[in-house]
Amino acid sequence: MPASSFPPNHPRIRVVGAFDELVTARFESGVNALCWPRVLEGDFEEVVMKLKAGPGITHLTEDMLRALPLSAAGRLAAAAMLDDYQRLADHGLQPALDCVNGYEHAEETGPVRTDVCSWHADSATAEVDTWLCTYHGASTEGLINEEAIRRVDVPETRAELLKLYGGADDGDFREWLNERFYDLHYAPLPHARPYAFGAGNLWRIATLHDSCAVPPCVHRAPGFVPGQKRLLLIS
After folding, report:
1. pLDDT of the residue at 55
2. What are phi and psi of 109, to 5 degrees?
3. What is the model's pTM?
4. pLDDT, tens digit, for every residue of 151-167?
5. Which of 73, 134, 160, 187 could pair covalently with 43 via S-S, beta carbons 3.0-4.6 A apart?
6. Secondary-structure percent of the chain, ordered helix, strand, coil, rounded to 5
7. pLDDT band at 223, cuts 50/70/90?
8. What stretches of 141-200 show up as alpha helix (H) in DSSP?
């Protein structure tokens, strides 16, 4: 199903006007996705081309980006990425800049897909959020919670999981689901309309942890198209 235009007008999504507001805004009153919309200057495609990244995910460093033989527009793009990296690092986060040229999916052996291209929520053992920005290529996609159902709550899927587990539908079974991350993955409902995070926009989304007052934001990485690399900031 195609993603709707960015961003949908929905109570779960709040748009902010500056980085400081993105940092200080709280996940409350049902809001679980914060977005700072931006139009970034520079030629990000040139950065991708000059990187010559191989298959999989290439982690980018400041030295790597500054060493690229870029035009003025390419340098603007690289500077924008490094500025965001520094913003998040100064805020005490551990950001990563990546060039994504496909994903190495683990072999799926159960009835629930658990890779990053599956609709999922991030989880944490402490009060942390997920930060995302796509600079080039297909962007991350989101799904409103009311338009999704956990795959473990789909009766047919739960029956398959119970058969695989070989026991009763009890606390031990729920712990088994959690250990395998099955309970973090979702299926869109028939009326669902996914939305794109868009290029250049910096997002902060809620994760599943004990202190979170709202449901976690359901999202996924876009399906990979050979030859179409992505530039991504994630923390």
Report:
1. 86
2. -115, 0
3. 0.93
4. 999 999 999 999 999 99
5. 73
6. 30, 25, 50
7. confident
8. 155-165, 171-179
Q: What token pair was written down for 235?
A: 């923390």
Neighbouring residues of 199: CB distance < 8 A, sequence distance ≥ 6: 40, 134, 135, 136, 139
Average pLDDT score over residue span 72-89: 98
Residue appearing with tokens 């942390």: 128
**What is the DSSP track for 72-128?**
HHHHHHHHHHHHHHHHHHHTT---EEEEEE---PPPP-SSS--STTS-B--B-SSS-
Say how far apart CA 200 and CA 37 lie, in whole Å: 7
CB 132 within 8 A of CB 205: yes
pLDDT for the residue numbered 108: 57
Q: Could you tell me which residues come within 8 angstroms of residue 207 by beta carbon, excluding any fewer than 6 positions away? A: 121, 122, 123, 124, 128, 129, 130, 216, 217
64 burial level (CB within 10 Å; 0-12, 13-18, 19+): middle
Put the strands of the sheet holding 218-220 in their side by side order: 195-196, 141-143, 218-220
221 and 140 in contact (C-beta within 8 Å)? yes
| 77/79 Cα distance (integer angstroms) | 5
